[in-house]
């Protein structure tokens, strides 16, 4: 039976995270604090200034805690994974686990990513529940709402959208009229959409300062829902800022190789719940449409 390890992204942070691993890795923890130039341990454990939910702090903090949990798996000699997947920010932990870069490089990347995403403004994101992507397209067309991008396909019936405040408000009203549930996300900008194009350009320039190895095992990319291709790290990670997280396609690709794939999530259960919904909605004989 194949195994896969899943890494959560922004939204999975919580006060007290890292309490079980900071003490085991004091050197790496101090290194992270020095590189970030703030007390990461205090931020994660106590969040005294209420900064943990802010993008520029969330992303390096969650990356670091996920990384320490990954190192802890290795220390315990847990079974190595046959595949890694990460949701948005979590993809950086997947790449770290697969040997594409070291801890320091990953931390420098997510620090810059968090700063660029935090600097963006003028819109937001919303999760639309119990609604397919095709039905959402119908609603947008029926009500003449322009400027909305799909930012994530979490399951077949949980779609995340992004856009400026005006179109998002119009979409919220359209969903309310149809009694469709939705949840605005606590983010400062329309991430994973066309509106992050300027951030993408700057981040791609930053990515080109680093050298990346090829993954030791498959890492399924959010942008394509398929394993990373050779030499594609820079283009894929920069595109991730403006493309939707294709989590449903990613999980279906994973299950196409082995429907019984055993999945483990680092630090939570939210991604596992998505996997089980996708697994339940996927006929066992359904081939991967992308192969």
From TrEMBL:
Active site residues of this protein: 88, 192
Protein name as annotated: Malonyl CoA-acyl carrier protein transacylase
GO cellular component, one term: cytosol
This protein's UniProt keywords: Acyltransferase, Transferase
Organism of this sequence: Streptomyces chrestomyceticus JCM 4735
SMART domains: PKS_AT
GO MF entry, a single one: [acyl-carrier-protein] S-malonyltransferase activity
Reaction(s) catalysed (UniProt annotation): holo-[ACP] + malonyl-CoA = malonyl-[ACP] + CoA
GO BP terms in the entry: fatty acid biosynthetic process
Taxonomic path: Bacteria, Bacillati, Actinomycetota, Actinomycetes, Kitasatosporales
């Amino acid at each position: 039976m194949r195994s896969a390890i899943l890494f959560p992204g922004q939204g999975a942070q919580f006060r007290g995270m890292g309490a079980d691993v900071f003490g085991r890795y004091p050197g790496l923890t101090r290194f992270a604090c020095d590189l970030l130039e703030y007390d990461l341990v205090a931020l994660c454990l106590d969040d005294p200034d209420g900064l943990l939910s802010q993008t520029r702090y969330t992303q390096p903090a969650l990356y670091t805690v996920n990384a320490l949990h990954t190192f802890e798996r290795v220390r315990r000699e847990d079974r190595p994974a046959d595949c890694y997947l990460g949701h948005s920010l979590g993809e950086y932990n997947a790449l770290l686990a697969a040997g594409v870069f070291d801890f320091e490089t990953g931390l420098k990347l997510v620090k810059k990513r968090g700063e660029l995403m935090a600097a963006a403004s003028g819109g937001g994101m919303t999760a639309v529940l119990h609604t397919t992507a095709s039905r959402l397209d119908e609603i947008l067309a029926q009500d003449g709402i322009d400027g909305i991008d799909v930012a994530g396909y979490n399951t077949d019936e949980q779609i995340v959208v992004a856009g400026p405040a005006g179109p998002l408000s119009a979409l919220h009203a359209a969903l309310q009229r149809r009694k469709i549930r939705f949840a605005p996300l606590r983010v400062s900008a329309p991430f994973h959409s066309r509106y992050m194009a300027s951030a993408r350009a700057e981040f791609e320039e930053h990515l080109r300062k680093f050298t990346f190895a090829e993954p030791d095992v498959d890492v399924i990319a959010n942008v394509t829902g398929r394993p990373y291709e050779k030499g594609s790290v820079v283009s894929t990670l920069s595109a991730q800022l403006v493309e939707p997280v294709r989590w449903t396609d990613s999980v279906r690709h994973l299950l196409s190789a082995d429907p019984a794939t055993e999945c483990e999530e680092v630090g939570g259960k939210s991604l596992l719940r998505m996997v089980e919904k996708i697994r339940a909605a996927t006929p066992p004989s359904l081939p991967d449409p992308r192969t």
